[in-house]
Design a protein that fits this description.
single chain; mainly alpha
Length: about 100
C-alpha cells in the first residue's frame, strides 16, 4: 500500500501546478452535483489531489522563506506582509461543513 502511495505522490509531484489549477473549477463543479456513484468519488479524489499539490507548494514556499529568513543576520530581518497578486486566479480551499 505504501509503495503505491509513494508512486502516486511521485507522479503527482511531477505534474505542472498551473495546469492542474486550470482543472480546479471543472472538478469543483462536478463534485457540487453529488451523486452516490463511483464517478463522483473519483472526481472528488481528483479535486483533492489538485488541492494537495497547491497546498504542498504553498507549504514548501513558506518553509523555504522562513528558512532563508532565519539564515539572514538579525539587522537584515524584517517582517513583510504577504501581498496576493489579485490578477492571478487563485485556487480555493473547500470548506467541508454541511450547508445550512
Amino acid at each position: 500500500m505504501e509503495k503505491i502511495l509513494k508512486k502516486m505522490a511521485e507522479q503527482l509531484g511531477s505534474l505542472d501546478e498551473a495546469s492542474l489549477i486550470n482543472l480546479w473549477d471543472k472538478y469543483y463543479e462536478k463534485v457540487q452535483k453529488f451523486t452516490p456513484s463511483k464517478k463522483w468519488e473519483e472526481d472528488i479524489l481528483v479535486l483533492s489531489l489538485i488541492q494537495s499539490v497547491r497546498w504542498k507548494n504553498q507549504l514548501f514556499n513558506h518553509c523555504l522563506a522562513r528558512q532563508s529568513q532565519q539564515e539572514k543576520p538579525e539587522e537584515e530581518k524584517s517582517v513583510r506582509p504577504v501581498v496576493r497578486d489579485k490578477t492571478k486566479k487563485s485556487a480555493k480551499v473547500l470548506d467541508f461543513r454541511p450547508r445550512n
